[in-house]
């Protein structure tokens, strides 16, 4: 009856462990789906950050949510570790029970040896002693049958313990794999954040360069061009006055030289700005 109760208890524990493993597998599948979603969101965020600065705040919020999710998963890992510790304690308890059963079997064997010695002594006694010995032999057969059943039960329990140990090893490997995946995701988030910062700096430099070019174009290009246009109109009026025409040609030359100088300055500025942007994007 004690062995049957022990078997019933162990079967209930096995069913609980099986349910926990099923729940753990579902949780892992859910986490994998969540990781895939996070990877897709990161790819979309990297593409949109090139052309949309306003999306930065939204992506930062998503990163905060992802960090909370990682914290939640770490909490789940700690719970799984606690469950594994409890399972290990249960295995230690079962091993102790096996040791007790082995000690009881040893005592039973000693008892059988003692009874065999008593049989030979009783053989020299009266017919009543022989009947008593026959009764004891029947009892011994019953005990032998019980010992055979107990040995089979021990073999079955050992097989179940080995299965449970294999399941625990697989669960530990899965936890190690999940930790490695989480570390990879954290590194990818860090690299993406650094790229975003670098892209922001390059974009600010680009906008600054464009503003400088627009300023120079507005203030330095338009003035020489306006001078040349005005002088060309005046040339039409004084085409027959050589002195005035020579002065207008001199003014036009000065404006053309100013325009050429600005063009060179603009070329140097664009070249320096291009090298600066390329250096930062490498």
Report on the architecture of this protein:
With 282 residues, the protein is an all-alpha fold. The chain folds into 2 domains: 2-198; 209-281. It contains 4 helices and no strands. It has helices at residues 2-51, 55-123, 127-237, 242-281. Helix 2 runs antiparallel to helix 3 and helix 3 packs antiparallel against helix 4.
List keywords for this structure.
282 residues, mainly alpha, 2 domains, 4 helices, 96% helix
List the SSEs and their pairings.
Elements: H1 2-51, H2 55-123, H3 127-237, H4 242-281
Helix pairs in contact: 1-2, 1-3, 2-3, 3-4
Name the structural class: mainly alpha
Number of strands: 0
Discrete helix count: 4
Proportion of residues in extended strands: under 5%
Order of helices and strands: HHHH
Gyration radius (Cα, Å) is 46 Å
Q: Which regions contain 5 or more consecutive residues with pLDDT less than 50? A: none
Oligomeric form: single chain
Largest sheet entry: none
- Proportion of helical residues: over 70%
Q: What is the residue-mean pLDDT, rounded to a whole number?
A: 81
> What general form does the structure show?
rod-shaped
Q: Cα distance, first to last residue?
A: 77 Å
Q: What's the domain count?
A: 2
Organism: Mucilaginibacter rigui
Protein name: Diguanylate cyclase
